[in-house]
Amino acid sequence: MKQITILMLLASLAACQTAPTREKAEQHDKAIIGAVAGAVAGALIDKDKRARGALIGAAAGGGIGYYMDSQERDFMAALDEETRRGELEVERVREDLLKMTLTSEASFDFNQSHIKPAFKPSLDKLATVMNKYNRSEITIIGHTDSIGSNAYNQGLSEARARSVKDYLFGRGVAASRITTVGRGESQPRDTNATEAGRQLNRRVEILIQGNQP
Fold first, then answer.
1. Residue 12 lies in a domain
2. Is residue 64 part of a domain?
3. What are residue 80's DSSP bridge partners?
4. Cα-Cα end-to-end distance for the chain
5. For residue 177, what is the domain's CATH number?
6. What CA–CA distance (Å, rounded) separates 138 from 125?
7. What is the DSSP annotation of the chain?
8. Assigned domain for 49 exists
9. Does 26 map to a domain?
10. Dist CA 189 CA 178 (whole Å)
11. Which of 135, 107, 133, 132 is nearest to 121 (CA)?
């Protein structure tokens, strides 16, 4: 009878020791499963973020390209007559940059910084497109030939760039979007040894820089 009692007591003690051990094992297994699941979920989330970032970057790149394509088409359509007459050139320098070149003969009298009245309607067209695409920044650069001193030509190129800015501002283009620069005779397009070359060198360039929304 005593032996039976002792055996039952030992079995009870074994059961008491085994139950917590099993519970701990189950908790340990659950912790491992949870850690693995968390790591997998974290990796998937991180991968998703990277994918979304790539898609956003691609969309942004496409956005600026589309924005500049539309702007270029509008400038070309608005200034078709001027480009056919050789008074103005529109060039796509890179995806986010347009360059317009205004010949001095069309826009300014020789040695003067006042815009010719006959060219003002062309600047009106420029202003209309610039106001439509108001995220673009504008840099106006004046150039001269080599007739006269360096200092005089520098001042003349700056004055011509400012004249164009002032006119565009008067047509609603925000002054904060416009920067003016004078290059004087330092960046000729052609030789200054001939009149034809000097005509090409006397010009105003307008750079249109597109920005992301």
1. no
2. no
3. none
4. 92
5. 3.30.1330.60
6. 15
7. -HHHHHHHHHHHHHHHHHHHHHHHHHHHHHHHHHHHHHHHHHHHHHHHHHHHHHHHHHHHHHHHHHHHHHHHHHHHHHTHHHHHTTSEEEEEEETTEEEEEEEHHHHB-TT--SBPGGGHHHHHHHHHHHHHSTT-EEEEEEE--SSS-HHHHHHHHHHHHHHHHHHHHHTT--GGGEEEEE-TTSS-SS-SSSHHHHHHHSEEEEEEE----
8. no
9. no
10. 24
11. 107
**How would you classify the pairing of strands 203-209 and 178-182?**
unpaired
Domain total of the chain: 1
Measured between alpha carbons, how far is residue 93 from residues 42, 62, 206, 207 in Å? 44, 17, 12, 9
Q: Which tokens hold the place of 108?
A: 């300014």
In this structure, the strands spanning 137-143 and 178-182 are: parallel
Residue (of 132, 118, 119, 116) closest to 75 by Cα position: 132
Look up the domain containing 136 and give its range: 71-209
At 82-106, the pLDDT tens digits run: 999 999 999 999 999 999 999 988 9
Instruction: Provide CB contacts within 8 A for 65, sequence distance 6+.
Output: 95, 96
Summarize pLDDT for 2-57 with one digit per residue, the tens: 444 444 444 444 444 444 455 544 555 554 445 444 444 454 445 555 544 443 44
Q: CA–CA separation, 20 vs 190, rounded Å?
A: 93
What is the model's pTM? 0.71
Between CA 62 and CA 201 the distance in angstroms is 35
